[in-house]
Design a protein that fits this description.
Elements: H1 4-13, E1 22-27, E2 33-35, H2 38-45, E3 50-56, E4 59-64, E5 69-73, E6 78-83, E7 93-99, E8 104-109, E9 115-119, H3 128-132, H4 144-151, H5 158-163, H6 173-183, H7 196-215, E10 256-260, E11 263-267, E12 282-283, H8 286-297
Parallel strand pairs: 2-9
Antiparallel strand pairs: 1-7, 3-4, 4-5, 5-9, 6-8, 7-8, 10-11, 10-12
This protein binds a DNA duplex (16 and 16 nucleotides) through loops.
Length: about 300
DNA sequence: AAGAAGTCCTGGGCGC
DNA sequence: TGCGCCCAGGACTTCT
């Protein structure tokens, strides 16, 4: 699941694209060209040269000499790879940009959640959330004071708010869980209940988990690889995500998983104690399954 | 306004 | 062995 560190790693691995010209765009799955319409997309991309590679939150911005940005979101399973024509084309390859040095920039995405947007200076056609993105971890705007201000009165659960891109841009499920573990904060806590000290700690560990993952080339949990096909090594660094039932690295108790806001939240019940109201924290397992079965029967 | 829930998508895992 | 259901989750839309 590419989050900020993974997308930044892809960006760095593709910097060789700068100066390359798109000779031809081959779109096998038109739906993945999210904006503009396919014909216009092809016209505006063909013949253009990449001038820089940028990133905003989880969006990759491939800048073109026309002034347009080719915006790519990998979502869950997207991969952007620069490969030689003879390299085997992996399954689920939906878009191929043929470049002037003979190489190909290929976009593959098993679940087709990701996509391309070609955006002009006016930003028309950009996804609605793009304009609302909040500050990123490691940025100057991301400060303890900012977090206090933005979380101070929110009734939502801290886990959900960490995933809200309007509040912090670039965090996803993995790093939200990892940061909460390090801050020793239960994912189901109401944001407004966090003390100033806890928010300060939260700020510090958010930066920490992102920085550590960047140093390791990101987390290759399922399908993520960088632009050269290399996996990241941050999986070994994960303390709670994907470790349900395994012993906590701090206390040895089993890591638990609950659902918050429709997303799994991994945490250590002993190291991250919370006012675990059973009403709010729906356990994953037989109870949830029987509830689903009940819904089906109705 | 804000929070919660539903939606898209499909390979892999699991139960029967 | 094989069928079919469930699950993963980023960010959107819809409902409350």
């Amino acid at each position: 699941m590419p989050e900020l560190p993974e997308v930044e790693t892809v960006r760095r691995s593709l910097e060789g694209l700068v100066g390359r010209r798109v000779v031809r765009a081959e779109v096998r799955s038109p739906v993945l060209v999210r904006y503009p319409a396919l014909a216009e997309f092809l016209t505006r991309v063909s013949g253009r040269t990449f001038t820089a590679l940028d990133r905003r939150a989880k969006y990759l911005l491939l800048k073109l000499d026309s002034g347009d940005d080719l915006m790519v979101h990998l979502k869950m399973t997207g991969r952007l790879l620069q490969q030689a024509p003879l390299d085997p084309v992996e399954p689920h390859t939906h878009i191929i940009l043929h470049l002037d040095d003979g190489s190909e920039l290929r976009f593959a995405d098993t679940r087709k959640f990701g996509g391309f947007y070609l955006i002009g200076q006016d930003r028309e056609g950009a996804p609605p959330g793009f304009r609302r993105l909040g500050p990123e971890p490691l940025s100057e705007e991301f400060t303890p004071a900012y977090l206090r201000q933005v979380l101070g009165k929110r009734k939502g659960r801290i886990k959900s708010l960490l995933l809200n891109q309007d509040i912090i841009a670039g965090l996803g499920n993995i790093y939200a869980d990892e940061a909460l573990f390090r801050a020793r904060i239960h994912p189901g806590r109401e944001a407004a209940s966090l003390t100033p000290a806890e928010i300060h700690h939260m700020h510090e560990v958010v930066n920490q988990v992102i920085l550590e993952s960047l140093a390791l080339g990101g987390t290759s949990f399922s399908s993520y690889v960088d632009g050269k096909g290399n996996k990241g090594h941050n999986v070994e660094n994960l303390r709670v995500y994907g470790r349900e039932g395994q012993p906590c690295v701090e206390c040895g108790d089993p890591i638990a998983r609950i659902v918050i806001g429709g997303r799994s939240a991994h945490f250590c019940p002993r190291c991250q104690p919370g006012r675990t109201s059973r009403r709010r924290n729906r356990a994953v397992g037989s109870a949830a399954k029987s509830k689903r079965a009940q819904r089906r029967d109705e």
